[in-house]
């Protein structure tokens, strides 16, 4: 079945460091891919998405490119801030188009 | 435009009780989905409602149920609560279908079962 695998955390970085959070997926076809972010005590916020191969989603300095050859959707940011500290979830819409399937989440902690 | 709202934000119940959680979607959104988030299992899909009908269901026991009203507001109910039901319950709304429209999440209801 469809699944998402993302790197285990926590990821600890200093402010202004480069961020990569790896995400790979298993799916039939080419599902839409998403990154959601969850700040402490809050629900999920959509960070960015890509709906087809080679699409690049971007928002707030974060980027991710839909790579069908490697079935990946890695999240990157050139210079992280303390305010980026949160849990990041990679997700896809399942084959039936009925629900999101999430990875386990990666905790990012950025210190000044 | 107001986002997805969920009430209450926190609940404490004891084993065997039942609980009802409420979700108001973004205005104009007709699809409402529910997810359970736990440290062990992560985020799991419970069910989706559209036009007052359950359209899709995840792999949860029958103790978990829901409904949707004509104004698209949704409730979910858990009967005979178990300790393992302690979780953050998230509601998400989309325009018409999760397959074509982005899902927007509410802040969640934190349920603790003692």
Q: Which residues of chain A sit in consecutive blocks of at least 5 with pLDDT less than 50?
A: none
Query: How can the largest sheet of chain B be summarized?
Result: 7 strands, mixed
What's the alpha carbon Rg of chain A, rounded to whole Å?
Answer: 13 Å
Number of helices of chain B: 0
Number of distinct beta strands of chain B: 11
Rg of chain B, Cα atoms, Å: 13 Å
Q: What's the main sheet of chain A like?
A: 6 strands, mixed
In one word, what is the shape of chain B?
A: globular
Overview of the structural elements:
Chain A has 112 residues and is an all-beta fold. Helix content of chain A is 0%, strand content 50%. In chain A, strands 2, 5, 6, 10, 11 and 12 form a six-stranded mixed β-sheet that branches. A four-stranded antiparallel β-sheet of chain A has the order 3-9-8-7, with no helix packed on it. In chain A, strand 5 (33-38) and strand 6 form a beta hairpin. In chain A, 38% of the residues are buried. The model of chain A has no long low-confidence stretch (mean pLDDT 94). Chain B has strands at residues 5-7, 10-13, 19-24, 31-38, 42-50, 53-57, 64-68, 74-78, 87-94, 104-105, 109-113. In chain B, the strands form two sheets. In chain B, strands 2, 4, 5, 6, 9, 10 and 11 form a seven-stranded mixed β-sheet that branches. The mean pLDDT of chain B is 95. The chains are: A mainly beta (112), B mainly beta (114).
